[in-house]
Amino acid sequence: MTHPLTKIPSAGRPPISGLIGSGPAMEAVYQLTRKVAQTNASVLLLGETGTGKELIATAIHRLSARSGGPFVRVNCGALSESLLESELFGHVRGSFTGAVNNRAGRFETAHTGTIFLDEINSTSLYLQVKLLRVLQEREFERVGDTNTIRVDVRVIAASNRNLWEEVQLEKFREDLYWRLNVVPIVIPPLRMRREDIPELVQFFLKHYSDENEREVLRVQDEAMEALQDYHWPGNVRELQNYIERAVAMAEGDELTTDLLPGAVLGKGERLTGRVRGVDLDTLVYEVVQQGIHAATPEEMNLYGKIVNRVEKELIVQVLQTCGGVQTKAATRLGINRNTLRSKLQEYNLEAKDDV
After folding, report:
1. How far is 13 from 15, CA to CA, in rounded Å?
2. Residue 98, exposed/middle/buried by CB under 10 A (0-12, 13-18, 19+)?
3. Is residue 217 within 8 Å of 5, Cβ to Cβ?
4. What is the mean pLDDT of residues 93-109?
5. Contact 89/105 with Cβ under 8 angstroms?
6. What is the three-class DSSP state of 231?
7. Residue 284 belongs to what domain range?
8. Are residues 312 and 252 part of one domain?
9. At residue 280, does pLDDT exceed 60?
10. Does 1 map to a domain?
11. Residue 108: which pLDDT band, with cuts at 50, 70 and 90?
């Protein structure tokens, strides 16, 4: 049978234009996005890779009073420290080898608008000092210059890592963390919003069918069931990739199971579900929510305990799916065997020695 691809109505206000998903998890994100867009507060977007943090940042800008100004994106993890400093703040001629002309930085370009700093956790401590000054004083100097430049810029930052944990490891400045974390928005992983998968599939099917002049607009029931059961470690970006591939490989007008990779079809067990009465998906989401709202040392300690609980339960589940074999479990968890052994000792867990 073919799965009917119909738009799921939202229980509250309609989704924001350009964003896909009408389930309760995303509705909460939409509500906070609309609310914070009307302010000038700094926003910290938190979520796994591929969840759509840049789309939310774009929506905040588009819904704000700054929508008439520029929206400037910077991937902080894509450049070295020296190149990123020049990219953000600009430079003057002769300030370093290759600086043959004066150049405005991204903060100057974003004047009266919004700058989106993706992978903010990748910045060095040196650059974090300069970022803190821009956030507090709205001023900076170009590399190699002494003239101070003032800007009116709204800052939205994003991280796919726990920034408070980075602070504890002394990899991220605590004062910058609090300046960025004025309004945190957690974007749920795709496994926490499975009700949105049919709508996302419909969107990507139409997009890639139009792009490739094809008519793959139906989905086999078994294929949709597999898509909704998969745990999606790569989130929406992974789903998009698989739908694009399916459209390219399809010979008819239907997306069938043979067009999906083996992992989606259950040849690799899901890492989510319930273990000893614990719903891991819900627990992980609650951990993220609690962590970003924690404000006192006592709350941070509690957050750490919950993180350990999630990690322990995840290891237990993976060991069960791997028959207790350490090598298989380590591979599935994405860690090496020595790290797994250390975790087993830490949580007093048992596993089979590899044969």
Report:
1. 7
2. exposed
3. yes
4. 81
5. yes
6. coil
7. 274-346
8. no
9. no
10. no
11. very high
Mean pLDDT estimate for the chain: 83
User: What is the residue whose two structure tokens read 């069938």?
Assistant: 256
Residues 282 and 299 in one domain: yes
- Our count of domains for the chain comes to 3
Name the H helices within the chain.
Answer: 24-37, 53-62, 81-89, 106-109, 125-137, 163-168, 174-180, 197-211, 221-229, 235-249, 280-293, 297-321, 326-333, 337-346
Predicted pLDDT of residue 334: 67
Whole-number Å distance between alpha carbons of 355 and 337: 13
12 in a structural domain: no
Q: Which of 30-39, 76-85, 167-176 has the lowest mean pLDDT?
A: 76-85
Q: Once rounded to an integer, what is the mean pLDDT over residues 262-270?
A: 69
pTM (2 d.p.): 0.73
Number of Cβ within 10 Å of residue 323's Cβ equals 10
Please provide the size of the chain in residues: 355
Angle ∠(87,62,135) on CA atoms, nearest 5: 45
